[in-house]
What does this fold into?
Amino acid sequence: MPKESFLLDQFSALPPREVGLAVLGYPIKHSISPQLHNAALKVLAEKEPEFNNWKYHKIEVHPENLSDALPKLAELGFRGLNLTIPHKVEVLPMLSSMDEQARAMGAVNTLNWEEGGWKGYNTDGIGLSRSVREVFDRSVKEFQVLVLGAGGAARAAVAQCLFEGCENLAIFNRSMERAYQLSSALKENGFEQKISLVKSLSHFPHNAEQPVLVINATSLGLVMDDPAPIDLSCLKGEVFVYDMVYNPPDTRLLMQAKEKRFPHANGLGMLVGQAARSLEIWSEREVSIHAMSCAALQAMSD
Ligand code: NDP
It folds into this structure.
């Protein structure tokens, strides 16, 4: 086992009574999840002091070590985990049960210790949906949706839109094969709505009467010099742009949207939304989105 990538030594003894929460990923150094969760836990602790014992960590876990890490973390007193790249799909066979929505998405980002095993949930879709509603004041159902990408984040976005009843949904991805796999997997999981797979934007079937929501779920934009995944000029009617990338906060796609005066937002609100839902699952309490948002903005400016 590559010891340096399974940094549990620091947790060989959690302080007595501590309820451990953590995000696992590889790499994990840049995650701001601890700031978000610990800010919301502080608010919970003001009303219920038992939450003073809850603490959220980040732990680098190499994919080869994930199956050893999960039982070990439970033994050490961890009760809630978030998973990020590259663990969201690989973890599935290691779970004792799975929430219906996560099963349909085929990926999980949240684990809760229930009845002696880790149960998997996916809160990325709800995080996206809450954020879209907050920034654009409309639900995803009100849009013709164009999802860019076909990886794990796109899968959560497409499934969430279908759950919420979107009737015009299209996927545009660099690899058509992967887009096809995503659409087939969702059909196998019981979704009956039609999903269009578009080879080029000129084939995106949309009308000028209903607004279009473009969701960037590709990793294009994570590097400052990345080009935009599409040229927004190809779209007609009212266009809204949601980029899941939040660091850097202004991607080329968002700059294009800004030039065209299209309503737009980066993915920081989605990060907050998925985190809030995870903490709701673990704590069974209402969570302060405000505290999490302030902590997220603060962490981004540090
Ligand atoms: P995956 O690796 O699973 O998928 C990456 C996707 O990006 C694939 O569709 C891939 O296409 C596409 N892609 C990668 N490079 C290029 C390129 N050069 N040109 C065109 N397309 C490209 O990643 P995830 O789905 O997990 O994450 C995707 C993005 O979403 C990331 O930026 C991630 O940070 C963000 N995200 C944000 C969240 C939030 O809370 N805001 C939550 C989760 C993710 P192909 O299939 O052809 O390889």
